[in-house]
């Protein structure tokens, strides 16, 4: 059973996310959704910081429960209207949430959820100032749980992109793609790795080369490029085979290893915009030992800038 936690807030944008996700998951085998809504009193947080909350601003717990229940019920109806089966929907309301992002992660871990789903712009401007981006914090602290950050309305290309960063990370993405998106309604899959600049030992050191030195250096460059490409082509071939085993036609899985033109993040954003991918799978990695998970720089740029996609962030 694939379990998804769908964080909801009752906004129109969130309802767009719910509808998009329902259409993608409704025919998936053994997919269940937990609709999760956090109630956070920003007024209460503010006034507790400066003194007692005035009586006129006290929050009626019963009213919070009622409004939270209405948001969950409306979210459930959006799932049902878009074809998701009622028997696979659960709902959970969290009152007095001090930090919605951390509560979402804690709930997912407690319920053994494999994927957290949220909209990229689900907060109001005031909430963003006070508590930061929920989607960014969930992505940072979710650890091994995959996170879908959905920028609705989605591109309608039915294309999925797997952005392979490194060899171990590429194999992790292969496993995730085969197990978690191979059954989704995507008709084309592309594995891509953008090559970084050449290592320093191959740089031009400024002196004029003899024909023999120029030939030798070019031979070293060609050897490095060939070896570099080969390792990623091998990883991608494994990913392609895993998808084929899931029933995807071999001709529908493309593999590309090519040099970065401007920069990895900007090239990936251009690729996403040009091909109108609907799903983009990319890895998450820890930048420092014994510290909370942090997003790599270009994954973070995609998180904030990729348009019309489900950005699937995969942890090890």
Number of helical elements: 10
- Report the principal-axis shape: elongated
- CATH T-level fold name of the largest domain: Rossmann fold
Largest sheet: 10 strands, mixed
Task: Give the proportion of residues in helices.
Answer: 40-55%
* Topology order in helix (H) and strand (E) letters: EHEHHEHEHHEEHEHEHEHE
User: Structural class, judged by helices and strands?
Assistant: alpha/beta
Distance between the termini: 20 Å
Count up the domains. 2
* Mean pLDDT across all amino acids: 84
Sheet with most strands: strand arrangement: 3-2-1-4-5-10-9-6-7-8
In short:
With 316 residues, the protein is an alpha/beta fold. 45% of the residues lie in helices and 19% in strands.
Please render the helix and strand layout as text.
Elements: E1 2-7, H1 12-25, E2 31-38, H2 42-50, H3 61-81, E3 89-94, H4 100-110, E4 115-119, H5 125-131, H6 134-141, E5 146-150, E6 159-163, H7 167-181, E7 188-195, H8 211-245, E8 253-259, H9 264-275, E9 279-283, H10 297-305, E10 310-314
Parallel strand pairs: 1-2, 1-4, 2-3, 4-5, 6-7, 6-9, 7-8, 9-10
Antiparallel strand pairs: 5-10
Helix pairs in contact: 1-3, 4-6, 7-8, 9-10
Structural features, described:
With 316 residues, the chain is of the alpha/beta class. The protein has 10 helices and 10 strands. It has 2 domains: 2-150, HUPs (Rossmann fold, 3-Layer(aba) Sandwich); 159-314, 3-Layer(aba) Sandwich (Rossmann fold). It has helices at residues 12-25, 42-50, 61-81, 100-110, 125-131, 134-141, 167-181, 211-245, 264-275, 297-305, and strands spanning 2-7, 31-38, 89-94, 115-119, 146-150, 159-163, 188-195, 253-259, 279-283, 310-314. Strands 3-2-1-4-5-10-9-6-7-8 form a 10-stranded mixed sheet, with helices on both faces. Helix 1 (12-25) links the parallel strand 1 and strand 2. Helix 1 packs across helix 3, helix 4 (100-110) crosses helix 6 (134-141) and helix 9 runs parallel beside helix 10 (297-305).
